[in-house]
Design brief:
With 625 residues, this protein is of the alpha+beta class. It is 47% helix and 11% strand. Strand 4 and strand 5 form a beta hairpin. The structure holds zinc ion.
C-alpha cells in the first residue's frame, strides 16, 4: 500500500468511529448490562449471542469463535479489507481528513475509495440497463446459449457494455463523476475510452454487496482485444488476489453450511446457485491463492480448528491437476479441509446443468474427495505400479505429500491410503516415507510434487503460536482470569506493584504472559489497552487480552478492596501450591544426611505457612470467584 497514514489520524478515526454504531450496521446489538452490548456473531453461525461489544473500550470479542479487536479490525475482518483500507473507509464515514506520510511512493487520496465505489455502482446499473437495448441482444443470446434466462440475468445483475467507446464515460460524467474517479475506478482508460467495450459483464462484489469491479467476456468475433475474459485492472478497491465472484450471494450460506465451493468461471457460479449449490464462488482473472483461502476460512468461521470444507471443482484434465497441486502447496492446514469434485466427462458445472440438469451439479459437489487423495493418486499413477521399483519410486514421490502434513493425527490415515493405492505393506510405506524425509531432495523446486508446476507460489507462513489457550471455565484458573480482567479493565484499583502479585503466581502460561505484557506498557494512560494489544506479537496472547478486556467482571462496581482481595486470592493459591511442593520435597529429603538443605526448606515452609494464614485472614479465601 502506498504511503502510510499519520498515527494521530488513525487515533482520531478510532476515537470518532463508535464501535457500537459501526458493528450495529452488521449486527443487531442488545444491551447486555455493565456497559456492554450483545448480538449474534457475524463471523460464525450461532443462535444464542456470544458476540460482545464494549463501547467504552472500543473493543469487540466473540466468546464463541474468538474473533475480537477494535473498530478498525472489525471493518477489516467483516469486509475483508487491509488495515489502510479499513482506516480509509472509517475516515470517510466520520469525516477525518487523513494525512498520508509519503515514503517515496504515490500517496492515497482521501475519499477516493468512496468515489470509486459510487462510480462502480452507477456503472453496474448502467450496464444492466443496456441488456434490454437492441445492441444488448448479443449479450442476451450469449446467456440464453448458456442456459440463463432473463430472471437469471437479473438475479446476477449481468450487464452489457456497448461498443461505442464513450457511452459509459459520458453517462457517468453527466451524473457528476470526475474523469479522475472514472479512471481510478478502472471504468475509463487514461485517454478517455470506456474500459469495457462490446462485452457481457459480471459485476464482482464484496460480501457487503459493493461493486468492486467487473469481469467481461468477449462476444464479438471482431473484438479488438483477443482475450476471452478481461477484468477490471487493479484499483484501490479491486485487488484480484482478494476478490471472489459470487461472494455477495454465498457469504451467509458459507457461514451457515461451513462449506464453500470454488469454481472456475462466472457462468459456473451462476449455474451452481441456480442448481441449489448456494455456496459457490470463483476467483476472477487469476488463480485461486492464499488470500482467497484466508477469506473463505474466515467466512467458514474457524478458530484454528480444522472444520468446514472448501470444495474445488476442477476439470479432470492436466490444467485441473495442476490447479489442484497449486492449492496443495498452500497452507497444509487449509489442505486438510480441502476437497475436489471432478466431473468424469470433463464437463464444467455450466455445461453439466445444461446437459444433465441441476441435480447433476449438486451431485458433482456431493461426490467430492479429499484433495490430498486426489493429488496423491495423480502422483502415484505416474509410475508403473506393476513393478517393485515402480512402487518404491511412487511412494518416494508421494512421501513429501505425506510429510508436509503438520497435523500428526492425519498422517496415519494418509499412510494407509498411500499403501492401498500403491499396493504395499503400510509399515514398508512408513519406512520409505521416513527415509525420504531424512534425505529430502536437495532443493525445494526439485521435489517430485513440485515438478509439474513451473511457478510454485510460496506458502505464506500462517501466524503460529505455541501458547496453549486457557479454558475460560476452568475453576482452578478462575482467580487468575478474574484478577487479569480487573487489571486490564480497572487498573486504577490496584497499587503500583499490582498488590504484590508476581508473574510466578500464575499457573497458566498464557495468563502469565498477559500479566508480563501488562508490565511492558504504561498502564492507565489514554489508549493504553489498545497499545497493549498492538504491542503483543503472539496471536494467542493478543486474542486473550482482547477477551479479558471485554469479558464482564463478576461484580457491577468493583472497588479497591475487591481488587485487593482478588490479588490476595491469586497469591494464596500460588502459595498453597508452593507449600504442597515444598512438603513433597521435604519428604524426599533426608534430615540427617542433608541437614542444611532440609533446614532451609523447613524455614521457607514456615514462612509460607505464615503468609498463607495472613492471606486467608485478609478474607480472600471467602471471595467469590
Ligand atoms: Zn463468533
Amino acid at each position: 500500500m502506498a504511503g502510510r497514514i499519520n498515527d494521530e489520524d488513525i487515533a482520531l478515526v478510532r476515537e470518532r468511529a463508535r464501535i457500537d454504531e459501526v458493528v450495529g450496521e452488521y449486527v443487531q446489538l442488545r444491551n447486555a448490562g455493565g456497559g456492554s452490548l450483545k448480538g449474534l456473531c457475524p463471523f460464525h453461525d450461532e443462535r444464542t449471542p456470544s458476540f460482545q461489544v464494549t463501547p467504552s473500550r472500543g473493543l469487540f470479542y466473540c466468546f464463541g469463535c474468538g474473533e475480537g479487536g477494535d473498530v478498525i479490525s472489525f471493518v477489516e475482518k467483516i469486509d475483508n479489507l487491509t488495515f489502510v483500507e479499513a482506516v480509509q473507509r472509517l475516515a470517510d464515514k466520520v469525516g477525518v481528513q487523513l494525512r498520508i506520510i509519503e515514503d517515496g511512493r504515490p500517496g492515497i487520496e482521501p475519499g477516493l475509495r468512496m468515489q470509486i465505489l459510487e462510480a462502480n455502482d452507477a456503472a453496474a446499473e448502467y450496464y444492466q440497463q443496456q441488456m434490454v437495448t437492441g445492441e444488448g441482444l448479443i449479450a442476451r443470446q450469449f446467456l440464453a446459449g448458456r442456459g440463463f434466462d432473463r430472471a437469471a440475468a437479473e438475479m446476477f445483475h449481468i450487464g452489457y457494455a456497448p461498443r461505442g467507446g464513450h457511452q459509459l464515460r459520458d453517462h457517468l460524467l453527466a451524473k457528476g463523476f470526475s474523469p479522475k474517479a472514472l479512471v481510478s475506478a478502472g471504468l475509463v482508460r487514461e485517454k478517455g475510452w470506456d474500459f469495457f467495450q462490446g462485452r457481457v459483464l459480471w459485476p464482482i462484489k464484496d460480501s457487503g454487496k459493493s461493486v468492486l469491479g467487473f469481469g467481461g467476456r468477449r462476444v464479438y468475433d471482431d473484438d479488438r482485444l483477443p482475450a476471452k475474459y478481461i477484468n477490471t485492472p487493479e484499483t484501490v478497491v479491486y485487488k484480484k488476489s482478494h476478490v471472489l465472484y459470487g461472494l455477495d450471494l454465498s457469504r451467509s450460506n458459507i457461514g451457515k453450511k461451513r462449506q464453500a465451493v470454488v469454481m472456475e468461471g462466472y457462468t459456473d457460479v451462476m449455474a451452481a446457485h441456480l442448481s441449489g449449490v448456494d455456496t459457490a464462488v470463483a476467483a476472477c482473472g487469476t488463480a485461486f491463492g492464499t488470500d482467497h483461502a484466508r477469506l473463505l476460512q474466515r467466512l467458514i468461521g474457524n478458530n484454528g480448528a480444522l472444520s468446514g470444507e472448501i470444495v474445488f471443482t476442477f476439470d479432470g484434465d492436466a490444467a485441473g491437476q495442476k490447479a489442484a497441486l497449486k492449492v496443495y502447496q498452500g497452507d497444509s492446514e487449509f489442505v486438510s479441509q480441502t476437497y475436489v469434485a471432478v466431473e468424469p466427462n470433463g464437463l464444467d458445472p455450466c455445461d453439466l446443468r445444461i446437459k444433465q440438469g441441476p441435480a447433476a451439479v449438486r451431485d458433482l459437489v456431493a461426490s467430492r474427495i479429499p484433495l490430498y487423495r486426489y493429488v496423491m493418486d495423480n502422483v502415484v499413477h505416474r509410475f508403473d505400479l506393476d513393478r517393485a521399483d515402480g512402487r518404491i519410486a511412487a511412494v518416494r514421490a508421494a512421501a513429501p505429500l505425506v510429510s508436509s502434513i503438520r497435523d500428526n493425527s492425519l498422517v496415519d490415515g494418509y499412510l494407509r491410503e498411500l499403501s492401498q493405492m500403491v499396493g504395499m505393506d503400510v509399515d514398508e510405506v512408513r519406512r520409505e516415507v521416513a527415509r525420504a524425509r531424512r534425505n529430502p531432495a536437495p532443493a525445494r523446486d526439485q521435489r517430485p510434487r513440485l515438478s509439474v508446476v513451473p511457478d510454485p507460489a510460496p506458502a505464506a507462513p500462517a501466524p503460529t503460536s505455541s501458547m496453549p489457550w486457557p479454558d475460560p471455565s476452568d475453576r482452578r484458573l478462575a482467580a487468575e482470569r478474574g484478577f487479569l480482567k480487573l487489571v486490564l479493565q480497572y487498573p486504577q484499583l490496584f497499587d503500583a506493584g499490582w498488590n504484590l502479585v508476581e508473574p510466578a503466581d500464575f499457573r497458566h502460561p498464557a495468563y502469565r504472559a498477559v500479566f508480563e505484557a501488562v508490565s511492558q506498557v504504561s498502564v492507565g494512560e489514554q489508549g493504553w489497552a489498545q497499545a497493549l494489544v498492538e504491542a503483543t506479537a503472539d496471536p494467542v496472547i493478543k486474542q486473550l487480552e482482547v477477551a479479558l478486556l471485554v469479558e464482564p467482571v463478576l461484580t457491577s462496581e468493583p472497588d479497591s478492596r475487591y481488587a485487593a482481595a482478588y490479588a490476595d486470592r491469586v497469591r494464596l493459591l500460588s502459595v498453597t501450591d508452593d507449600i504442597a511442593e515444598l512438603k513433597s520435597r521435604l519428604q524426599r529429603t533426608n534430615p540427617t544426611t542433608d541437614r542444611p538443605a532440609y533446614n532451609a526448606m523447613f524455614t521457607d515452609l514456615v514462612e509460607l505457612e505464615a503468609l498463607r494464614k495472613e492471606l486467608i485472614a485478609s478474607g480472600s479465601g471467602a471471595l467469590e470467584v
